[in-house]
Amino acid sequence: MSRAVIVSCFALTLISACSDEGAAGFGNPPTHATSAQPSGAPANTLPQSGQGNSGGVLARDGQDPAAGLEATMAYNTSDIGARVDFHNGPLVGVSIQCDRAGGGAVVPECAAANAKSAYLVNELRGVHSYAGAFAVNGYGPDQNQNGFATVHSGPAATERVNLPGSSVTYTGQFQSGASITTGGTRYAGRASGTTQLDVDFAAGQLSGQFNGTLRDDATGQSTALTAGFQNAAVDPNARFFNTADTGFEYGGQQAWGELDGAFYGPNAEEAAGTFGFGNALGGMSGVMIGCSEYTGTNCIAPTPRF
């Protein structure tokens, strides 16, 4: 399968660099680091400032295929701000500092080094993990490249994640920028909804399903949105990612895609990751977090808490 994906921009009026679609491809996933949460920490919060190696996906606006991401991400719990320092590829040397959180209709501008501007577009946080999507404008040698970096991370590495030996289902949420043409009408804007990840740890395989709603920024109209993947790989280092054997679908049709994620918590209680899906209908790129024991209140901090 070709390692390429058509992804949509985050169609937000605050981000002038967006076009409807761009082509992107990604390389091998980076190594991730995770840690355990101290006992007694309340649900829906990361117990302390965290910092760890982060992996993710970069979708570039109208450019040639980009590489997979490696970064160091730091975040705190008082206002769930985030700092990301990128280590490789087109974003090497770029740093982003967001002093307040995003999510919902709030799209804060972030301070950026070696880029003209940056925005925190989407953000999800669990007890053990964090995932964020950042629009980065004006990076590269000529400061003329625009892209969307989606990254995930956990607190500083202090303990190894113990992977289960059996099959586990993770239920959670996703947020993304998206576009799709359905019934002759094109929708472009923000998408969100539920995600289910079915993991066979013994076989080292992962499949996922996304069901949500895409709200068009221009008209306010909404449409149902579905996507999914089959046969992604899970490795002993608690990472998951797509391979040549991974199949993708978007809007009910075969698609190209990219996936990068990891399991977090002492016993892999959470799965956090980044994704891109796309085909002739459109595409989406964003973040997700799921929990093995999901109740709707114990897993992901809901809007407007971040």
List keywords for this structure.
single chain, 306 residues, mainly beta, 9-stranded antiparallel sheet, 8-stranded antiparallel beta barrel, 19 strands, 54% strand, globular, disordered N terminus, disordered C terminus
Polypeptide structure, described:
- By secondary structure, the protein is mainly beta.
- It has one domain (5-291).
- 0% of the residues lie in helices and 54% in strands.
- It contains no helices and 19 strands.
- The strands form 3 sheets. Strands 11, 12, 13, 14, 15, 16, 17, 18 and 19 form a 9-stranded antiparallel beta sheet that branches.
Number of domains: 1
Assign a percent range to the helix content. under 10%
What's the N-to-C terminus distance? 37 Å
**Main sheet?**
9 strands, antiparallel
Kindly provide the radius of gyration, computed on alpha-carbon positions and rounded to a whole number of angstroms: 17 Å
Structural class of the secondary elements? Answer: mainly beta
Please report which band the strand proportion falls in: under 5%, 5-15%, 15-25%, 25-35%, 35-45% or over 45%.
over 45%
